[in-house]
Write a structure and sequence with these properties.
With 80 residues, this protein is mainly alpha-helical. It has a single domain, classed as HD-domain/PDEase-like (Cyclin A, domain 1, Orthogonal Bundle), CATH 1.10.472. It has five helices and no strands. The longest helix has 18 residues. The protein starts with a helix and ends with a helix.
Amino acid sequence: MFDAQRVIEAIGQQVQSKLAAECTGHDWYHVTRVHRLAKYIAQHEGANLLVVELAALLHDIADWKFYGDEDAGPQQARCF
């Protein structure tokens, strides 16, 4: 059986580990703020919570501004 909460927690742990030492302002604390706000909005708008939470957690995983490659983020997200 698919357990969305377990998936979100596992992805969150991986993102936290990857961004723990990030010093650009796109760190784990930024991701948690985005995640919390996105979840709040999604609940009030009736959005698909799984999609919104995963997008919020992964939105800066390999930001193109720092990697110079628009495909870096989606490629790393697939690995998670």
